Amino acid sequence: MADDFILDTDALTRRMDGAIASLRTEFASLRTGRASASMLEPVMVDAYGSMTPINQVGTVNVPEPRMVTINVWDKGLVGKVEKAIRESGLGINPQLNGTIIMLPIPELNEERRRDLTKVAGNYAEHARVSIRNIRRDGMDQIKKAKADGLSEDDQKFWEAEVQELTDAYIKKVDAALETKQEEIMQV
User: Fold this and answer.
1) Is the pLDDT score of 31 beyond 70?
2) Residue 135 CA to its chain's centroid (Å)
3) What are phi and psi of 42, to 5 degrees?
4) Alpha-carbon separation of residue 12 from 22, 118, 152, 165, 170 (angstroms)
5) Which family would the database say this protein is a member of (predicted)?
């Protein structure tokens, strides 16, 4: 039975790709001195009794390089959207103009750039932890197969495959982090 064991490396790869995609989404939310609608993606608003993404309560526009506007559809949510932005940690001070919230993007000073590189480092570390957890799941499957009679040579082969896959994805995370940190520190 265990001689037929084949680890589903495609499933592990798919899950690790998901961790990388999640990291890229988090990196997109970090501002680098230029306005971007994606920087508001992680901001959630308490709307109608549930946490809702900001782009589902209003229209997000980038009319100029240093300005993001949100045209809130429901007047009653303007205050909640403003509060969510203030508490998001983006370091942006929203300005109200009726149902339109304007977000002027200030120049990043050296201290804020360093803070943002630390945040990027935290995001990357979360991605590494996710990848290591996926690795652990793969190793657990191999150990279970070993208990079911998988040969020691096959066990070592599959463990090496999982470790090789893990190392490749950790390198991808490190490369993405280095690129993002250079982008943030660029004046």
Assistant:
1) no
2) 19
3) -75, -10
4) 15, 28, 21, 8, 14
5) Belongs to the RRF family.
